[in-house]
User: Fold this.
Amino acid sequence: MQRLEVVSKFFLALASSVFLFICGLSLPPLGVVVLPFVAQPVLMFGVKYGVAGGFGVLFVAVVLLLLFATEELAFAYGIFALMVGLLLSLLGRVRAIENLLASVAAAVLTMTASLSLYFYGSWGAMIGDFRDTLTQQLASAIRVQEKMGLPQDSLQMFKERTPQIVELMLQLLPALLLLSFAFIALINILYLGRRFPERRSEWFALQHLREWKGPEPLVWGLIACGFALFVPGLAAVRFVAMNLLVVIGACYFAQGLAVIAFFFHKNKVPRFLRGMTYVLIIFQQIFTLLVIGLGLFDLWGDFRRLRKNNLTPSQAS
Assistant:
């Protein structure tokens, strides 16, 4: 009976993961919501029935896509398979959540870049295709906004700046992809933590994300990248510095959110007000920048008083 249960759960995890993957690719608007959870069924099976079983699900899924779909789909699923494999292997071994996310995201980004180069044949062809795709997506967004009756002045300005926006997005593409992979991994491990609460202490050094703070030496990277932007005649250095600044800014944004979440929890702020605050932070640039500044100055201000007797935020509250 137990073997039958394991087999049934195996095929359920396989079918769920492949179904989410196909749906996410077939329905692009839905893909933003669906694709981050492609890894979740396999992760849950691997945690509950063993890492070897999780790898088995991934192997069968890739083979099925190779046999009954296309090579491109199989390789694309392989990106999620790599993420799942790394998470199953590193959970409990790398307990600092920032190190776990950085390791997984960097490995997945490397694999994505390698596969893209393999299919396109050259970086120039890949960047050209990405440029055309981004231009088409922005043009479609403008047409939708025109139908919604938005002011023509702002739309015209947006049209004129489309080439500059596309080039900026291409320059920041490595950082954006790295952060996207890290965010997907974060969503999955947080859901695993809720599904298996008894294993949180085994997996993570922190009980809650509101206890998180970035590594203190990160500020030196921020300073160095800021100066590197003003070095004339070194395009490669500027490219690297811009991407590192985006990643470091995201880290301080996360720390700022942790500070806000800490005080929300400490003062028992209603969930509705918390939700409204987070919506403002995400959709209003001024609030986003304020949260990044809050995270940065928490390095010196220690707003949660975490350094007092080396207490964790939960103990300090």
